[in-house]
């Protein structure tokens, strides 16, 4: 049966856990509409991506 040879030090334990932290998703403000959206994603309200019309614009009915 596998048994650790020695106790894991606090430094090594914390180095291993350093990648476990959660980060908030990034958002950018759209230059034309002022809406917040994820970077490199289509703005669903206007349907624009990188200055081009990709989808039909959403209309509030």
Task: Please give the number of β-strands.
Answer: 4
The best one-word shape is rod-shaped
Quaternary organization: single chain
Query: What number is the mean pLDDT?
Result: 88
Cα-based radius of gyration, to the nearest Å:
23 Å
Helix- and strand-based class?
A: alpha+beta
Poorly predicted residue ranges: none
- Determine the N-to-C terminus distance: 66 Å
Task: Tell me about this structure.
It is a single chain. The mean pLDDT is 88. The chain is built from one helix and four strands. It has a two-stranded antiparallel ribbon with strand order 1-2. A two-stranded antiparallel sheet has the order 3-4. A hairpin with a 6-residue loop joins β1 (28-29) and β2. The longest helix is centred in the N-terminal third of the chain and has 8 residues, at 10-17. The chain is an alpha+beta fold and 61 residues long. It has one helix at 10-17; strands at residues 28-29, 36-37, 48-49, 52-53. The radius of gyration is 23 Å and the shape is rod-shaped.
Output the keywords.
two-stranded antiparallel sheet, 61 residues, two-stranded antiparallel ribbon, 13% helix, alpha+beta
Please describe the topology of this protein.
Elements: H1 10-17, E1 28-29, E2 36-37, E3 48-49, E4 52-53
Antiparallel strand pairs: 1-2, 3-4
In short:
This protein is α+β, with helices and mostly antiparallel strands and 61 residues long. It has one helix spanning 10-17; strands at 28-29, 36-37, 48-49, 52-53. It is rod-shaped, with a radius of gyration of 23 Å.
């Amino acid at each position: 049966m596998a048994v650790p040879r020695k106790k894991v030090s606090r430094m090594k334990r914390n180095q291993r856990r350093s990648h476990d932290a959660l980060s908030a998703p990034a958002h950018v403000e759209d230059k034309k509409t002022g809406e917040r959206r994820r970077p490199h994603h289509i703005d669903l309200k206007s349907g624009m991506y990188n200055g081009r019309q990709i989808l039909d614009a959403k209309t509030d009915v």
